[in-house]
Every structure is written in C-alpha cells, then in structure tokens.
Amino acid sequence: MSTATFTEASSGVLSSVVGLIGLGVSYQMQTGLPDVVASIVMASIVSCVSVFLLGKSGNALLGQTLPTWRVKSLIETLEAHAAVVNVYDVKTELVGVDTVRFKAEVQFNTQAITERMMEASQELAPAGGPLQAHGMLAMRLKHLFPQASRIACAVCSNRLMEGSSEDECPLREGDPHFLEADRKEVPVEKTCLNSCGRPAAEGYDSCCRTCIASSGRSHGPVCESRVLADDKTTEVWWVDLGSWVRIDNETQERIEAARREGRTEVEFHARGHPYLIDLLAMAQINLNTGMQRDIKSTESEEDEPHEEDEEEDEESDNEITPPWLQPRSSREVAAAPTRSPRLVALVNLLLSPAVQVPLPAEATKEDEKLSQEEVKKVFKEHVKGVEKYLFRDMPGQYSLNFLASAYQNGLRAFNGTPMDNHLKWLMRSIVHYGHEKKPGAARYLKEVAEAFLDCQAVQARVVERVGLELLGVSQDFKGLVRAMVGDYKVMAIKMLAIDHLSRGVVSDDGNPTHYENRLTADLGSLVGLNKDDIRRADLDEHARNRFGRLHGPSAEKAVQRFKELFDIEALAKTFCNEVNSFNENSSNDSLPGQFMKWADEKMTQKHSIFDEETCCTVDVQEPLAIALLEVLFAGKPSNDCGEEYRGVQVQDLFKLELCAVVAMVAA
C-alpha cells in the first residue's frame, strides 16, 4: 500500500470516529453544539490531508528535479567514461523517495566502442567458475610473461613424453590451448649423422650429400633453402606514417623473400607509383615523388612500437601502398560465437538489399544569406572554443575557415558531383537554423564543427545527417527500425576495417575513414548498407586511389566476416531499450511512438507488449524483439522457432496476413 493510499484511508477512518463521537455527545447532552464541533474537526482533517496529497501529486505530475550540482556531477561521471564523448539535453525527475528518472542524449565514441568489442571477441567465454578463473590467469600471465607459456608447454610436453599422466600437469588441466596441442602428435626430429646440427632429410640419415662429402663443413643449395624455409621467426615490419603502422602482408612476404635471396632492395608498384624498400637504409621510397619514410622490424606483432600518434597530411594519403585481402592466418581475430540457425537466417535477411535504407529526399534549394564573417560569428556564438579548432591538428589550418567555405561553396571534394548542391544546401540550412537561434542549435552546430576537425568524408556524413534531421524527414515504424539496422551495419563496417588493419590486410592511419568508405562502396550492395553511405563512399577519391576494389572470392570472404561481426544480439537489446522508453512525453514520430501505432494495427495480443504486473509500461523482451524483426522484414516469425512468449505462441501474436502483405509491398 502506498503512502498516499494509507494517509487517505486513515483520514477517512479518523473523520468517521470524530463524527460518531460528536453524534453520541450531542445525543447525551441534548444539544447540537458537539455535532457542529465534530463536523468542523472532520472538515479540518479532510482539508489538511487533501492539501498534503495535492502537494505530493503536484510534485509527481509537474516533476521535481535534482539539484543542479547533482546533475552536473552525474554528467561529469558519464563523460569520464572512454566510450562517452558528450552528454547534453539532460532532464531529471523525482518519481519516488529514492527513485529518479534521468533522461539525456549521449554522444558515444564509436572508435572506443568498436575497439572494445573487438577486444571482447578475443576474450574467453565463461565456462564455469574454475575454468573461467584459470583462463583469466593464463591470459594475464601470457601478457606479462610471454616466455612463460612456452616454458610451461615444453615442461608439460616433456613430462607427458616421460610417461606422466595428464593430471600431473596442472597447467594443462582444463586449458583448451593445451588440449588442442595434445591432440597433435609431437614429432621427434632426427638430426644429421654428420653432427652438423641440421635436421636429417626425410627418409635419410643425413641432411644432404654435400654434407657427407665435406664431413659437415658445407651444404648443398637444396639443404640451404630448406633450412631457410624452416626458419619460423615472426619478424614484423613497420612503416612510419606519422605513427608506426604495420606493413601489409604482401609487402612483408616480398621483404622476407628478398632477405632469403640475399637482396637488400625490394621494388614493387602500386596505383601506378614505383616504390623501393631499402633494407640497408631502412627506408621506403616513392621513386616518383622522392618521398622517403622510415621502416623498422620487430620480433613479433606483440612488439609493436608505441609512439605518440600524429595525424598525417591529407595529401600524404598517396604514400600508403596497400595490397588486398589475404587468406586468414592462425593469428587472426577469433570468430564470433556460434549462433543458432534462426539467428543466422535473421542476420542473412537483415544483411541483404531487402533491408536497406533508401536515398533520402534531395534537399531543397537554400540561398546564401550570410557572409563568411557572419557564418563564423554563428559558430562562435554557439560552439565554445571553435575558433581554436584545427583541421587534422595541422597548425594554421583553422576549421572555422573551412566551415565558412563549405557554407558558401560546398565541400571541395564533392564539387561537380551529384551531391554538390545537396550537401551545400544542407550546410546552409544548418547555419541558418543556428543564426535564427532555434532550439538545439548549439548541439547541431557543435556536431558539424567537430566533423570539420577530420577529412571531408566525415564532414559530408555529419552534414547530411544533421541537415536531414533539421528538415524533419520522418519515417514510419519499419523505416525507423531499418535505420537502426543500418546504424549497426555501419558499426560492423568499422569493426571489419579494424579487423583488416590488425591483421595487416591493409595499412592506414589511426582513423581509417577512407578504408571504411572503400569497404562501404564494394560491399554496400551485397549487404544492404545505407544508400546514402554508399553514394558518399563512391565519391571518396582517397578511398578509390589508396585501395583496390573488392571482388570475387575476396568480396565473399569480407561479406562472411562482416556477418560474423554484425552484432544481432546487441541490436535486439537496443530495440528493446528504445521501445520500452515510451512514456507520455514520447513524440508520435519517434520509434517508441511509431511502435505503439504499429502494434495497435498489426498485433492480435496487444497487451503482450506491456509489463505483466500492471500493464502500464512497455516491456518488450528480446525473444519478442527477434520475432518483431522477422515479422517486419520477412512477413512472419521463423517457421521453426516454435516458441511461446508469455504463454502464447509467437505465431499467434501477430496479424500475419496483414504483416505479409506489408512485407511484400515493401519488397
């Protein structure tokens, strides 16, 4: 029972008691005065309780917010997290004695989140307390003492060969890496009978005939090449592109081949440019431009040189010489956990042209109304410190000048393309919105200003997104969910780019926007990436010049890896969080608002989207979210799911005939 209910009931009981006492006293005294006094007391009790309850209800309805200092502390705590860039548009409301509703718009650091997800994919999955603890300790020991794992493996192998049982080797117990090694036969290497120290040739007692003739003092060419081929060093080469970047796999192989042959120079061509790697001078030279960059080698990829990252000049992009997709190595990033056939089918459906965000409506013409100085003034008034923003941290290259130029002439990289006027008019719409000091102008202008710290590919992406948002381009429920799926496809593209960089498939700087555009242009039509992203990627000259196109088996491998990296589980959780956020303040055009409208039209059991106890709040769980995605884009839930949701067959939750018709029309 709530405090309000208890107070109201108590006041009623107390008033009744007072009234009865007044009547009794009046009867005994044969006068109406006690009854009048009792009535006054009753009215006073009811009035006081009513005022108290009215005040409590008013606070609950009108909203009582947290103190400013407390809100500021919460914002600072959130922004201290590496994955959070900015927190704005904060709203708080006290909904109980110890309960607060906190609403805010959070801008996340996609690169930090992507790197964490890639790291998480390599961590051991929980498999019981002892095994998980053993795995964590093993990973930490391996990181701190790389040689320890090799020593432990050798010790355990020797003990097994001596006849000891597997249980006597504690490092092996429950460790999947040791168990995998145990399945393989440990070969006993036979050495040359001439005591030269080399392994004997297969089927012979010596390494070669020359060794026998010279009593081990010299060896034949076949023997020499075999020894070189058996050298299993893990040397890795790096080139200085402002920060040390791993040289791609193809060039690594060229360098190793040259060293085996005794050569000190490696020549190759890329994008019409001849390059020379001088192993004596430890330099990579562009023979056309004369540009020279330092190179170095390390014993393994774990010994990657760490230096303070520096952004390279936009024009130096032509100095990077990438190959293309290589076969996966044993050191590749671990694949995503195995999914059920149902989720695999859903991923294949979502990552197809059938679920693709179409091109947005073209921006309407927006005339130039402000001078360049007035444009700069608009940004200075709304974005703190914008006058100090530098394009790619290059001294003297102030972003404010590029912002004013983009307003007047558009983005230089897109001049003469179909997107030229589209982006220019959107940029002008954004600036005019800020000039008129409309709601949220500071947030929109800050997003655009921060985009001009980076290359024009990033600038175009942000200008188009913010501009279309300001123009009020609205969508129905299916369109909003399609856009959410598109956002997760973009995240998967970023993860795929980082995956390729980490494996040396390509070389790029620390912010591989252009390589992401290369992947977007080549894989976009295969996996249903947003059409506006594909259009921008096709116009990226740096992506076109720096990287070769993906086609054939290379594209198929990239698509398969892309599907592994696409996080369908996170998508389902995000969908639940979005629709469950519905409240009285939700806009009809928002995803929660459109979901309520869709559920009313397409669901037979409408109450199933609410919580079971009160049916007052939206409470969609992940199993229903998966079924909703299937119904939206396939017209019906999976045929073999056979599951129930809150006691009802999933198939019976929807008006399947209507959903199927809508899906066919959309297709």
Please tell me about this protein's structure.
With 667 residues, this protein is of the alpha+beta class. Among the domains are: 60 residues; 72 residues, Signal recognition particle alu RNA binding heterodimer, srp9/1 (2-Layer Sandwich); 105 residues, no CATH class; 99 residues, no CATH class; 95 residues, no CATH class. 51% of the residues lie in helices and 8% in strands. Helix 1 packs antiparallel against helix 2, helix 4 crosses helix 17 and helix 24 crosses helix 25. One of its GO terms (molecular function) is monoatomic cation transmembrane transporter activity. This is WWE domain-containing protein.
Structural descriptors:
667 residues, alpha+beta, Signal recognition particle alu RNA binding heterodimer, srp9/1, 6-stranded antiparallel β-sheet, 10 strands, 8% strand, disordered C terminus, monoatomic cation transmembrane transporter activity, membrane, transmembrane helix, SLC30A9
